[in-house]
Amino acid sequence: MTTARDMQPWRPVMEVTKLALMQNDGALVWGVDVATCLHEAGVGLPSVELAQVLLQHLRVSAGNAAMWSYIHHAMSSQMVSCLHMLALLTQRIIPERHQQAEMYTFYLELSSTFIFSLASTKSMPCRDRIVKAVDEALQLSQSSGASITEVGTVIVHFLFAIVARLADAVSEDWGMRTDKLGKVSMHGQLVSLADGHEDSKEKKLEQLKKNNSLTALHLMAKIMQNKRSAGILRLARGNLPEQWEKFAQKLHLLEALTRDPLSMAPKEAPETLGHLAVAIQQGLRQEWRPNQLPVIQSLLSISSRTSSFGNGSGLGRSAPWLPFDIYMESVMERRRLSVTSNADTLAGLYVMKALQSVHAANWVDVFLGLWTAALRLVYRDRESTEGPVARVESRLCMLLSIVPIAISIVINEEEKGQARPESTSGDEKKGSRRAALESCLQVLGQFESLLVPPPVAVVTINQVVVKAAAYSCGTSICQFVADSCFKFYAAGNMRHLIVEACIARGLLDRSAYFWLAGSGTVANLQIPSSPSQPSPWSAFMEGAPLTSSLRSALMLQPAGSQAELDKIYTTAVSGPEEERAAAATVLCGASLTRSWNVQELAVQYAVRLLSPPGVAEHRGGNAFLAHGPMLHAALTGMSTVDAINVLSLFGMFPEMAASLLPICEFFGSLTNAKPISPPNSGEELSAHMLFSVAFLQLVKLWKFHRPPLEHCLLGSGAGLGADLSLEYLLQLRNLQLSSQSGEKSGKDGLPDQMQQSKRMQANGTAYSSSPTKNTLVVLDSFPKLKAWYLQHQACIASTLSGLVRNNPVHQIADRLLSMMFKKLNKSATAPTTGSSGNSAGPLDDVSGRPILTAWEIIAAVPFVIEAALTACAQNRLSPRDMTTGLRDLVDYLPGTIAPIVSYCSAEVSRGFWKYASMNGQDWPSPAANLLMIQSEVKDILAATGVHVPNPTEGGNAPVSLPLPVATLIGLTITFKLEKASDLVLSVAGPGLESCSGGGPFSMQVVAALWAQKVRRWHDYIVHSAAYSVFKQNKEATLQLLRSCFAVTLSTPSALTNKLQLNGGVGALLGHGQHFAHGPETIAPGMMYLRSFPLLHDIMFLSDETLVLVADAAKDLGAQGDLDSDSSGPLPGNGGRLRCVQPSLATCMSRAVQATSLGASLLYVSGGTTLVAKLFTQSLPTWFLSGSGSKSPQASGNMVLEGFVIAHFAVLSGALAWGVSASKGIQASPGMAPLNMRRHYVLGLHMNFLASGMGGEISVACDHTIWRSYVVGFIALMVTCTPVWILDLEVETLRKLATGLRFWHEHHLATALLERGGPSALGAAAELTLG
């Protein structure tokens, strides 16, 4: 507020103004006199106080026309700030427009003249005071809720305030009406006029008011038509969403008032309002668009041009959706199971939204790409190969459970109003995604070759066929198959199961059955009136006891409803004691792997079996003992390959780990002296057996067998190494529990099963959490398990030391050694730990085995193995005796296979032990088929374009292996391939594969020995040997990557003699018959996805993938000859950047395939770790080293190369980081480390780009490539991932915008700042104003 003392210098000015009004002096004379007075008083111009003086005189003079001319002169000569003066007038005049209509007219004219001169405020010396004065006059900070200190920010708020207040004024004016009694009514409220009569003066006044309302609309339209002011209002729309929504509602009210006969809207109002609407539409669209860069436009148009998909075999077909295929195939790999829900990964965070945004695709194409990729996944199942690999059930789980759940997440997000601004496919109406799903599923019927069902799905398909036929004709029907031959002939196809899965989850209504009623052979079916064979589930639900025959039937037929699952679960945890184990076996059988419509419930129920009611309250004890047989049955059912894969797909590993800890702790504390199976059960179940099943299931969840080298190769804070620890699983599980309690989750943090449970409830599916879900789980609560875990880590870190002799652990180890080597106990050569204590235990069972708890045995195993290996190395113990003794130990306690594998794996990496000669005498010999195995491996590799030297050059000399490896091989081949040994081999197999990682030769020896033992696993064993070649061979991995690019892009190569010539996903991953003609036929992509989890060092992949994408772009540019027939310069890129549109479209189709392949391989290989390295190291090094300038290219080709690399980078980041907002997300155990998170990595990369644009660093590559990359990356970020820009600092955005303006990319620079959020509002406004 201006005080009397502050106004002292202004008294002469006030006197001069008063005298000028009395003498009717002209504005120029008045201006000279005022300027003279201010100069004498030492006051500079423009002046904030002068504007206040003028407003005061305007009030006193009652709107004298001369006073308006003085104000006009002061604004035009910059004696006052136009911004400040208009703000004062706006606050003063608009509220009093009815009483002072003429002043309102002058105000509108003045505003129309000076509203476009606001930019002059930026250069005024008193701009800070002007900003403060405008803010105080209009109370902008109060309305926005944030302090306004920048000129650009105050201009945005001011201009929007004027437009909004004018709209409010017009709506109020038109809402008033005069009735016949001479009273003014406003929305039904009557107000008497002052005089009560109408004369000519009153009519003129009313006409003036109507004209003013039209003038106000014209002024708003004029503001919208101006390029700069329209840009300012675009900023207001993006940063003031609530205020803008009110403004839009006011415009709709004006439109309604023009149609209201009782309103006071003039007859010209509809036409004027129409002009305003057109101006708003055009003005708000005058922003940067992808079509200003034809290359970017072509990249974003690929999805619409390749929506035919076909079978995905041709070049360009399904190119944008290649990441779906690669991601789905990668999660089928047994060596790399998921710990989070794949449905959330597909939809909630990364893959689906990333592809939709980066490709600017509509949801019909996205859903179609997702479904066809899942169908191809099923089509590629490896049913013809025997071995411990996932069968088609796991792939059907992805198609019929994970994909529908992922789609439901996307649809629910939209319908609940949670859709993020990352969508770039246009304005979405509510329900558009659900409609897109319906359209997609109708189109899906055209893909007949992909819809052929596997045998395991035939019965279920026929049930859906009958149900659809019954629904279409209005007949009720039970879920059964009437004719026995109906089980072998599919009357429908996979679309029937897909539609059924969507109906079950509420994505479609039951009218979708009409789509199916006329397809296939449904119309010819004879619907039976009564079932010939009642469903076993019907009998069970009616109360039939779980007899042996009923159990067998239920194990083969999955449950189809929640009620069935709930009853079988209830029977397992609280039913008759003799039925509990059978019920658990049923629940963890076909119902776990094939209950596709309710599979998310089935996995929840299965895991809840591990925490039965009452256990948590009684802290184990007798409650655990009572449930022992049930727990054993459940764990046995969940230990199959497909069950593990299904649980992994739903992200159940963290909860499983938390549930297994108390089981291991309790049963590991019991001896084997007393069986825990119920009497008359016919089965003997010991605590050791139950412990072993639970313990081995636990260690399989976190890759315990991986060598210590892999803990350090990934660098500090590397995310990939986190899953090598039990703590990671527990931290992730506790994070999920915290998110259920109301903390933040599901944005940039990892999603959890708690959210999945909420989704199940939203879909009408009940869910009750298990007891362990309500408390945090930490290792400290399980002292015995923690003691083993610490010992396990110590064993990996260093050799056994630090324990004094005669320690109880050594005494137990000696007792175990005595048991293992009974025949040698009387000789001096019998191995011992060196303890002087008595190894003979008083507590032995009738068979001579010591009576010990499992934890005591597990703790002693490393010392037992060390003593045995030492004795064997010193020739005091024969290899055969040692192998027999170890086998006895594993038979005694199967869980000991885990510490045996752990110890051998650690010792191999140290290289202390001598080599064992595999000569067929002391150790088994692989000579019988080693050369054949090597030849087949070589043929497999050659078929994928990989050529490595033969590892054996020594003729017929016996091969040698490190003693720990030979010991583990000798032990594993003693087991028969039977159900009883599956659990041990499921742990020993990966451990043996890890131990044999010293080179490809070791694994080939292992393969030769196992191929002799299990001939039906021959193909699987040979492929495993082929995968091991890449473990420490970077050159072989690079050759394989080149082959992947070559076959996908259909690059001329020798590979095309054996692989499909058309390229695409079919050539990359195969067509489902890659095992049909022998082990040598395997697609390069499948080879890579099976081998990359074995790589010790993955960090080089980011550099090499970047080079391959760049090389592909060069080749595509050379083939397209983009400079041969130029059609003119690309807008915004100068005369050097030319292309031919048809050639460009063809190249872009191939380019999207190259970038999709590169980004997908990078994402599945290393996630945020490799993507962070790509942005922070690989890309900067590539540009600074001049890697893009090694060969001369045409300028158009270099433009293409830069844009393709930009597309590759953006797509890689979108897959790894997602495209949703990330601000405010705090660090958590489930998130990537700070140096790999988006805001950090992207900030570093954008600072690098800004430095290069500003000349702070020198870029060695060709300037055309550099410029096209920078422009392309920013353009894609602005168009496809605008929320990324919110992660950047304002100063970085300013530098980037300055560089873009220097390159004449003014629109792109403005668009970049427009999306910078409130913090960049001022900078964006200043750039818009120029």
Automatic annotation (TrEMBL):
Q: Which residues cross the membrane?
A: 1198-1219, 1240-1260, 1266-1286
Question: What segment(s) does the record annotate as region Disordered?
Answer: 740-768
Question: InterPro entries given for it?
Answer: MED33A/B
Keyword annotations for this protein, in alphabetical order, are: Membrane, Transmembrane, Transmembrane helix
Q: Which domain of life is it from?
A: Eukaryota
Compositional bias annotation for Polar residues: 753-768
Q: What is this protein called?
A: Mediator of RNA polymerase II transcription subunit 33A
Q: Which species is the source of this protein?
A: Sphagnum troendelagicum
Q: What is the lineage of its organism?
A: Eukaryota, Viridiplantae, Streptophyta, Embryophyta, Bryophyta
